Structures are given as structure tokens and as C-alpha cells.
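Posting for a labmate who doesn't have an account.
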Amino acid sequence: MRNPAGSEVLASRDGPLFLLTLNRPDRLNAVSLRLYERLAAELEEANRDPEIRAAVLTGRGRAFCAGADLKAHRDAPPDPEARRRYTAAGQRANRLLQTIGVPVVAAVNGPAVGAGLELALSADFAVAAEDARLRLPEIALGTFVGGGAIYTVVERVGALRAREIILLGDFFTGSEAAAMGLVNRAVPTAEVLPEARKLAARLARRAPIPVAAAKRLLREASSLSREEAMERERAALEEIFGTADWREGLAAFHEGRVARFRGA
């Protein structure tokens, strides 16, 4: 992976795992137009690479992501065109996290505020530091949430708790987030990235075609009727029955060995 000098997102490979690191530690990895655009470009590359089976998203330094760079916004208020580019880039990066075919694990190693928490919630799984401070403060600051938070929060914790998180904008910890089901688990800070990588490695061993299908149908589930959901399941199952990976999984089960899936 190329990481040009000054890149606001670092990318690296470890076998089938793709590690993305937000790289503005002096600004607690606060988002910028360049960061969003770089993150989207890396996610698109990962989605095209059949050798990548899972991704991990984390932040460099002591924060995951402190959200919007409010100092930059204050010092140079964006004009209407700049605002449009910035919001579109943010939505694109979050949409890609949610929709790429491989599972994404957020390793929330420190504070995740506003746009930072939105990025974490766009991942399929999130492992947070127990004492990480999390918050969606946008409405309290007179602005608005983005990155799909209106539905990513609701799908995790329900509408009642989502109103508290979004409308009140209070801080809560990683441990509290795990207790309410907003993140999958909370661990000591030093264990966040190893735990996220371990989870990603497990996901990378799954057959990629069913994983992509499950991601897609789970994402669509809330908008489907029961009959529509069952029909889409049927179609996915019928397609997967014709894959080499299905035959490999069946053979591995009967032979008592680990399956070697190829994504075909």
C-alpha cells in the first residue's frame, strides 16, 4: 500500500486483513475533507481486492477520532461549495464502510466524538477502550449528525436510547457503550487493537460470498417485509449453493479440517 508523506489515512496489509489508521494525531485524528477522501479511496481499493477478507479501522495516537476539526472550521469558515464537498465526502466514506463487501471492525482506541463516533458506528463491529469517551455532540453545538447516525444508532440501541444519545449529546464511556449495545465489546486500551484484529481474523476465515450477502441483507432488513426478506434469503442461498466455496465448506466439514475459501 502507498502511504504518501502527510497522508491523513495510513493503509497496510497483513495477509487477508486490511488495516486503516486515521493519521492526524496532532489534531486527535479530527476529520477533514482530505481524510474523508483518502479513507474512501482506500475502502474502494479494498473492495476491489479479492485477497482482502476483512478490514480494521483505528486511530493513530491516543484518540480514535475527535470528530470535526472545529478549529479549522472557526479559522476558515467553509463557503457553500466547500460545505457541500465536505458533507458529501463524509457521507461517501461512511457509506463505503457500511456497504463494502468485506466486514469492517472499528478499533476505538480512544475518544470517538461526533464524526469519529459516526465512523465507528459505520463499521460492522466495534471494539472500544473501556474508558474511551464517546459522544454525538452535534445538536448540542447547533449542527447536525451525519454518516448515517440517524439509523446506525437506532439499529443498535433502539429509538428510545437513540434520542438520548443524539438529542442530549452527553458523554459516555466505552464500557457504557458496550452495556447498551452500541459497540460489541469494551476492553482495556492496550487490548483494543489486538482484540479488533483477532475478531477481523476470524471474519477473514469466513466464506466471502456469504459474508457479503449477509452484510447486504442485514443492512436492508429494516426496510423489507418478512416475505421480501425471505425471498432475498432464498435467492442468496440458491446462488451460494452453486459456488466452489460451498462445496469446499461441505468437504471440510466431512473431513474434519479447516475450510480454505477462495471467494468463488
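Reply:
Got it, the C-alpha cells are right above this. The first strand starts at residue 9 and ends at 14.
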